[in-house]
Design goal:
The complex is a heterodimer. Helices cover 75% and strands 3% of the residues of chain A. Chain A is mainly α. Chain B has one domain: ABC transporter involved in vitamin B12 uptake, BtuC (Orthogonal Bundle), CATH 1.10.3470. In chain B, helix 1 packs across helix 6 and helix 1 packs antiparallel against helix 8. Chain B is mainly α. Classes of the chains: A mainly alpha, B mainly alpha. Chain A: It is a multi-pass membrane protein.
Chain lengths: 357, 297
Amino acid sequence: MATATLRPCGDFKSRYAADQTIFPTVWSRNFCILGVVLVAAAPFLVDRYVLNLLIQIGYLGIAALGLNILVGFTGQISIGHAVFFGFGGFASCFLNSNAGIPPVLSIPLAGVMTTAVGLVFGIPAARLKGLYLAIATLAAQFILLDFFGRAEWFTGGSNGTVADPVSLFGFKFNHDESYLYVVLFYVVVLYVAAANLMRTRDGRALVAVRDYYLAAEMMGVNLTKYRTLSFGISSFYAGIGGALYAHYLGFMSIEGLDISFSIQFLAMIIIGGLGSIMGTLMGTAFMVLLPQLVNFLARSLDGSAIDHALGLHEGLPFLREMTIGAAIILFLIFEPDGLAHRWKQIKAYWKLYPFSY
Amino acid sequence: MDLHLLLQLSINGLIVGTLYGVVGMCFVLIYKASQIVNFAQGEFLLIGAWVCWWLLTKYHLPFVWGFLVTLAFMVAFGFLLQVVVLRPMIGEPVISVIMMTIGLSIFCQALMKWIFGVLPQPYPQVFAVKSVNIFGLEVQTVYLMAMAISLVIMVGFAWFFKMSRTGLAMRATSFDQQVAQSLGISVRQVFAVSWAISAMVSAVAGVVVGVVNGVSSALSFFGIKVFPAVILGGLDSIVGSVLGGLVIGVLENWAQFVDSQFLKWGNLYEVAPFYVLIVILMIKPYGLFGKRDIERV
């Protein structure tokens, strides 16, 4: 039940319905709607460069949310998320160009296909956990990537495949301005779906598996089912994200689907906050904007003494990689709960001001 | 069928396998002492190889001196890394620690690419004779040296854990950290020593591979190849990692043989260990010699 105040004081919830609500206050709901409206208005406000970044945050955010459901909510580590992302992209292109299915349908279908693949690779998850599972997914990453390289009928081999732009009733979403709405639609639907998943019996079962698997099993949670299920759900999100990526570029190739991309997904959810839905979006935004910031800094130092001393210009691609690694390390040491936690603390500070607690 | 090729590949496999075994031992050492899986193991090889290359080419040190300075450097490096980066991670959940080492590996690899470039750099000629003939098979001298060094390292490890005080302290720590601490063992010191040794021994493997193939960032792939070997042998068994390394090394080369003779896939060599990895994890997740955590799920 949403309350009508801007800053509710204290936690006086007396019913489960009030505790389980997505938006604790009317204002938090309004702010979310305002955010969506602002993004929807973005094509009229900002230039294409920013639009491109917004679209990137959109499709990567969807895939990262899938990984967060797997890692943050179910407690299973996966180091192979990029190949599921890639599989979604290839599946959508394949359905589009070989079976003639329009992208409007092929994107969700690609999600379903990726779910099937994820369930197959989730079978080890039924038996393994923690570290061993991480290594199993590492193997999945190499095996699937090798498969992509070889299966030319599916991926076009090293040449890649092309994809039609998304079109609906004859209107083509082939510009950044229009494609933003496609991505926004999927982001809103999938994020709301994930938020709701955590309020259902199945979602709580996933969290129970994460918190203590033995206790969960004693309470009647079917471990095998839920561990595999979370792999399926996470692959679905990755598949949708990958399909959106493929139709955005109009092209899909195996380039860039390597292990460092998988690690970037992990970095997104760690920086955003494990087990936080809003945090996933924050972390994705952070990881998309970080290379831009590095570019900007390198450009502003262009020609200066520091530039000459360090050779920033040639080292720029490596500098970007390094900042990703450094961001992971620094966040784990200084901010292990991620940006979402910091955001909560900022809100609590303003709520309690001038008292500290 | 080409028997000569098969034999040659098997020998190569055994030799590369000993290197996998050595890197695997370093891996197990860290895992045993601090329950940390080090995804940055390959970068240790890379850093060691680059530092040695730099000393040899820029300062024209004799190989032996360059090698020794590299080892000293790696000890300091491993120690510092443990103190600065990994000490805050003690007691954190598995995912954080894994991510920490992954972050470390990205950081080190990018840094090495930045400093030394992406092109493979050859080592200066180290041995006068490039390859020797053993029973009609060409074996590179450096590989023979590698085998010898690996064997020495393996025996050294065995002695270290059975006899030396630090080795005993390490075994006690890996058995139960709290009990070890209450018996007066400095757990922090044990962690630091294990990282230092691990970095040093990895650098040996790195230099050996560097002398054979030249140094490039591809070298750090060793760190990932070591996972199948270590899982096969059992994550917490030193002997297991050596055996696992040999098996994976031979298997990899046999896969290459099968590939070149029958399948013509072209890259089975690279992927075969990971198929093996999945199979092992499905049927025997604790490996051949690993300690089995008993839990009923």
